[in-house]
Predict the structure of Protein Smg homolog.
Amino acid sequence: MFDVLTYLFEQYRDPDAFGDRGSLMRQLEAAGFEDEEINDALDWLDNVANMVDGLYASADDASGMRIYADVELERLPTEVRGLIQFLEDHGALSPSQREMVIDRLCELPDDDINVGSAKLVALMVLWAQKAELPILLGEELLDAIHGEPTMQ
């Protein structure tokens, strides 16, 4: 699934440019992806797009500290929670975007939840919202796609 998401991010700077799902599936199949991973990725992106409509909007109005539920503490490693906090503290994620990232991460299998996947999930949430992010933090998130960041 992450390979498909990475491919889509690299090919489409605007997620609205996908066109219809059928032609996008054909394009992804022609690029060598399998039907199951294509469907998983597109369903995952559909869920992110549905969240954009305001499911977590009230989080932006709240003040205070985010306390993780027991199930989130079990599923999200300390390093992942630290990354999410870092991104929020530095203005890359709003509280509602943070909640979207947590929600999408918790939908992944346990073996797939790590710092790299958290960076990719955060990038996909921001991309789906067409959000701007500070250049250095964007470089850090792009590390999940391109390897080591080029900026020091």
In short: The CA atoms of residues 11 and 49 lie 18 Å apart. Residues 148-152 have pLDDT under 50 and may be disordered. The helical segments are 2-11, 21-30, 35-52, 70-75, 78-89, 95-106, 115-128, 135-146.
